[in-house]
Amino acid sequence: MKPLLRLSEVHRVKRILRRTRLNTVCEESRCPNISECFGSGTATFMILGDRCTRSCSFCNVKRGKGRPPDPEEPYRLLEAVKVLGLSYVVITSVTRDDLPDGGASQFASCIKVLKENIPNVKVEVLVPDFLGKREALETVVLAGPDVFAHNVETVPRLYPRVRGGADYRRSLELLKGAKEIEKRLITKSAIVVGFGETKEEIVKVMEDLRSVDCDLLTIGQYYQPSLRHHPVVKYYREEEFRELEEIARSLGFKAVLCGPNVRSSYRAVEVL
Question: Can you give the CATH number for the domain in which 259 is found?
């Protein structure tokens, strides 16, 4: 009966998402864990539409200019969270370089609406880099998220090929700046492996993240969404993930989650 119950829950989550007109990164990115997460009644909500203004070669999210932020979206999110009975909510977005604040005010509205209407709810935000705008960063952090996440994704050498429009140092500065604004804030980042990076480069990224006091880290395997995306250069073995996890823990991360199917929001409440 358990597989049937899980399938039933997957369909229930999808019906709720369609009714509230919400996007999830789970669906848009073809996450390998979608059945597990939907089957347990959880989802990572993706605000600000389903079109990204950047062109990362590994990402399956659609490209293009999105619509103006919907002022009702935070309340539709609230409805979905209440119906699903969630106590831990993960909110991410497409990158919206076309907006003056990169969508920061929409993140802030979602955080505030959830916090004001659901007692003891915890909110994790996974944000873009806001083009390094300090005011946008402050808007999100001062709204009071419990976890502030921003993914570096890969090693600096591969940024031009993998993360078009992004900047490695800018991402590190964003994580550093979040802690400067709120010292008690828990920060988090993610690395995706398989693009052609070396072990030494991965370790250096870990060290860089710890240098800006990043608390939590996830590391997962890259899977090519289609032939037009960046090719997989290497599939890591389980023992290699275990080694990377041990190194990360030795560097002082408070929690680390590593594995082939691990994604930045996977089992987020367990990593906290």
Answer: 3.20.20.70
